[in-house]
């Protein structure tokens, strides 16, 4: 069975470098698809209240645990949605997510978007800190936070986010934000690591895929891993789920990494964090 190496977060919690994302996985398919991922060797799963499939993620985790996998070996992330920001609303949203997941504890809880116009991410994060201090969640962090949001958060809160989950792929390299994460001890987790599939036609990546006799998805995910990103590709078939995890048995050269680095064009496949509210 393939397995991802682990990464130790800034609070000592251990997460897989490469996990499985379930955005847009229909609720009715989610349990079976996550079970396929867990059977393939994935141990980290990324969901969110927004995705409407937390029940499926929880059911797959329960199945795996019933079949002998240690719960401690699985890492489940969920996220508080924008309409639930604020201290009390976030605590209530967490309870709702936990009811759906059916888990005793959550591995990581993130603020999904900063929503700067709402101006509620600080009380929202304080709710996450309280969940963290009571042990209901093992790590807390943020998603889609830009430098200004991170600085405001760090000025007002005590627990440095373990992760900032951001859109990141060869067409959107986020160089400055990643440097800030490194300085602050925050792990960078890449969402839409394949630019939602758009990156798979890039000519440079196609050339490198042919050279290495690997798929373009594997070349792209290998670039993420060698760049030090945590990564959570989503896929809908057993074959692609397995293919995406099989990136730990080869390496890109420095020159190849530099060629992929040079593909950055600041191109988002998702929303601008300053415009989501
Ligand atoms: N925090 C946030 O705001 C945020 C936003 C977006 C996403 N996310 C998280 O990040 C995860 C990944 O992002 P994403 O789902 O947007 O996009 P992604 O992982 O970049 O791309 C997924 C797309 O690529 C295709 N694909 C996957 N593996 C492939 C392969 N080996 N060969 C060919 N095509 C392949 C998938 O097709 P099939 O599904 O048809 O196989 C799907 O269309 C999400 O599931 C979610 O957990 C978080």
Explain what the structure shows:
It is a single chain. The protein has 277 residues and is an alpha/beta fold. It has a single domain (6-275), classed as TIM Barrel (Alpha-Beta Barrel). Helices cover 41% and strands 15% of the residues. It has ten helices and ten strands. It has helices spanning 27-40, 54-66, 87-101, 121-133, 147-156, 175-184, 203-212, 216-227, 238-245, 254-261, and strands at 6-8, 14-16, 20-21, 44-46, 75-80, 106-111, 137-143, 163-167, 187-191, 230-231. The strands form two sheets. The chain has an eight-stranded parallel β-sheet. Strands 1-2 form a two-stranded antiparallel sheet. Helix 2 (54-66) links the parallel strand 4 and strand 5 (75-80). It is globular and about 55 Å long. The protein starts with 5 loop residues before the first strand and ends in a 16-residue tail after the last helix. It binds NADP nicotinamide-adenine-dinucleotide phosphate.
């Amino acid at each position: 069975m393939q397995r991802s190496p682990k990464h130790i977060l800034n609070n000592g919690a251990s997460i897989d470098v490469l996990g499985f994302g379930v955005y847009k996985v229909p609720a009715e398919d989610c349990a079976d698809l996550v079970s396929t991922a867990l059977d393939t060797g994935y141990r980290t799963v990324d969901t969110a209240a927004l995705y409407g499939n937390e029940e499926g993620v929880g059911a797959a985790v329960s199945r795996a645990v019933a079949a002998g996998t240690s719960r401690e070996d699985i890492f489940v992330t969920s996220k508080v949605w924008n309409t639930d920001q604020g201290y009390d609303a976030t605590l209530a949203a967490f309870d709702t997510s936990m009811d759906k997941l059916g888990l005793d504890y959550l591995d990581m809880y993130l603020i999904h978007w900063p929503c700067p116009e709402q101006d509620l991410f600080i009380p929202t994060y304080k709710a996450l800190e309280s969940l963290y201090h009571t042990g209901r969640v093992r790590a807390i962090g943020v998603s889609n936070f830009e430098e200004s949001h991170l600085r405001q958060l760090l000025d007002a809160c005590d627990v440095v986010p373990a992760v900032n989950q951001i859109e990141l792929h060869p067409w959107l390299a986020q160089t400055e934000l990643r440097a800030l994460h490194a300085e602050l001890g925050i792990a960078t987790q890449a969402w839409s690591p394949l630019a939602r599939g758009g990156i798979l036609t890039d000519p440079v990546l196609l050339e490198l895929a042919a050279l290495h006799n690997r798929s373009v998805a594997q070349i792209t995910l290998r670039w993420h891993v060698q760049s030090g990103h945590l990564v959570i590709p989503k896929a809908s078939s057993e074959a692609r789920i397995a293919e995406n995890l099989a990136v730990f048995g080869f390496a890109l050269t420095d020159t190849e990494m530099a060629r992929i680095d040079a593909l950055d064009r600041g191109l988002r496949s998702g929303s601008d964090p300053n415009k989501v509210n």
